[in-house]
């Protein structure tokens, strides 16, 4: 896969990423990885959105401790494009739409 995947993800979720304050966005080739402000209740620091071969997404979140171990705090595989924002909202506590 190439950077077209990252640009497609950014285009699909541009408003949501803006709403949650995403920064330091990194192209992973098959997805993106970015930092969000820490919610004191959920403590998620980074999110990873990766496109799978079946055109679904895997959404993973990391706390500071999870970043050191490399194991995600949560992982949702097989998420369709219309459900990614709902997963982000439920796991981070941030609203992705008005």
Structure in words:
The protein has one domain. Helix content is 32%, strand content 29%. It is built from four helices and five strands, in the order ααββββαβα. A five-stranded antiparallel beta sheet has the order 1-2-3-4-5. Strand 3 and strand 4 form a beta hairpin. It starts with a helix and ends in a 6-residue tail after the last helix.
Cross-sheet strand order for the largest sheet: 1-2-3-4-5
Spans with pLDDT under 50 lasting ≥5 residues? none
Major sheet size, sense and barrel closure: 5 strands, antiparallel
Distance between the termini: 33 Å
Structural class: alpha+beta
Task: Kindly state the number of beta strands.
Answer: 5
Q: Helical proportion?
A: 25-40%
Q: What is the global morphology?
A: globular
> With helices defined by DSSP (H or I, 4 residues minimum), what is the helix count?
4
Radius of gyration, in Å, reads: 12 Å
- Strand share of the residues? 25-35%
Mean pLDDT: 92
How many structural domains does the protein architecture include?
Answer: 1
Order of helices and strands: HHEEEEHEH
């Amino acid at each position: 896969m190439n950077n077209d995947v990252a640009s497609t993800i950014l285009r699909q979720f541009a408003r949501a990423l803006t709403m949650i304050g995403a920064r330091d966005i990194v192209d992973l080739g098959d997805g993106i990885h970015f930092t969000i402000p820490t919610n004191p209740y959920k403590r998620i620091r980074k999110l990873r959105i990766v496109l799978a071969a079946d055109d679904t997404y895997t959404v993973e979140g990391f706390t500071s401790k999870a970043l050191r171990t490399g194991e995600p705090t949560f992982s949702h595989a097989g998420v369709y494009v219309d459900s990614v924002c709902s997963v982000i909202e439920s796991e981070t506590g941030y609203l992705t739409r008005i």
